[in-house]
Amino acid sequence: GQQLNQSPQSMFIQEGEDVSMNCTSSSIFNTWLWYKQDPGEGPVLLIALYKAGELTSNGRLTAQFGITRKDSFLNISASIPSDVGIYFCAGSRLSTGNQFYFGTGTSLTVIP
Amino acid sequence: SAVISQKPSRDICQRGTSLTIQCQVDSQVTMMFWYRQQPGQSLTLIATANQGSEATYESGFVIDKFPISRPNLTFSTLTVSNMSPEDSSIYLCSVGEETQYFGPGTRLLVL
């Protein structure tokens, strides 16, 4: 199945810094989702995007649906230690119904 | 969002045996899915669990290895059959259409 390219693969940042990560695909998607997964847990939905150009915030998190519909971005402002985890993007295409393809993941470490 | 529970949360199994994982949702849902997450990897869709009909499997996954039941709109099971160490993974169920919500996962270790 298709896999989305997510970058960076890992990040080590100081507490208080801002974080940016992105997800790209060779195909056009009509939905983008961003998840956070803590160790030993299932992924938790952070933000859902349904329209090209859409910019949506959830607290300190902001995500954008790229204009080309082939990419999406997630930003975290003023990082805190509990932001540590693995962040996954996921996208779906109209042609494949409700099937979501997942990114390779970005591992975030926040240094207090 | 729906509340999703999975049983067991974790298990250690011997090769050649089978394990059935249960997924329970607190509300009726149309779409239920099963994913596998191998150690340190991303999520891969195994199949869509269809209520009242056979599951729809993704390329690389077959019914004999991963039989799925979906007896009603709130419950599904995934069986990992004739296990080998390569089946050691986290198995996750999810629900939703335009978005997907995940259960806590079942951590399986095959010795």
Instruction: Count the beta strands of chain B.
Output: 11
> What percent of residues of chain A adopt helix (DSSP H or I)?
under 10%
**Secondary structure tally, helices of chain A:** 0
Approximate strand percentage of chain B: over 45%
> Would you list the SSEs of chain B in sequence order as H and E?
EEEEEEEEEEE
The pLDDT mean of chain A sits at 93
Question: Ranges of chain A with pLDDT <50 over ≥5 residues?
Answer: none
From the structure provided, what is the oligomeric state, counting identical versus distinct chains? heterodimer
Strand content of chain A: over 45%
* End-to-end C-alpha gap of chain B: 36 Å
Largest sheet of chain B: 7 strands, mixed
- Largest sheet composition of chain A: 6 strands, mixed
SSE pattern of chain A, N- to C-terminal: EEEEEEEEEEE
Gross morphology of chain B is globular
3D architecture notes:
The complex is a heterodimer of chains A (112) and B (111). Chain A contains no helices and 11 strands. Chain A has strands at residues 5-7, 10-14, 19-24, 31-37, 44-49, 55-58, 61-65, 71-76, 85-92, 100-102, 106-111. In chain A, strands 2, 4, 5, 9, 10 and 11 form a 6-stranded mixed sheet that branches. A 5-stranded antiparallel sheet of chain A has the order 1-3-8-7-6, with no helix packed on it. In chain A, a hairpin with a 7-residue loop joins β9 (85-92) and β10 (100-102). Chain B has strands spanning 4-7, 10-13, 19-25, 32-37, 43-49, 56-57, 68-72, 75-80, 89-95, 101-102, 106-110. In chain B, a hairpin with a 5-residue loop joins β4 (32-37) and β5. The model of chain B has no long low-confidence stretch (mean pLDDT 95). The A-B interface holds A 1, 3, 31, 33, 35, 40-45, 48, 50, 88, 90, 98-100, 102-105 and B 1, 4, 31, 42-45, 48, 58-59, 92, 96-105, 107.
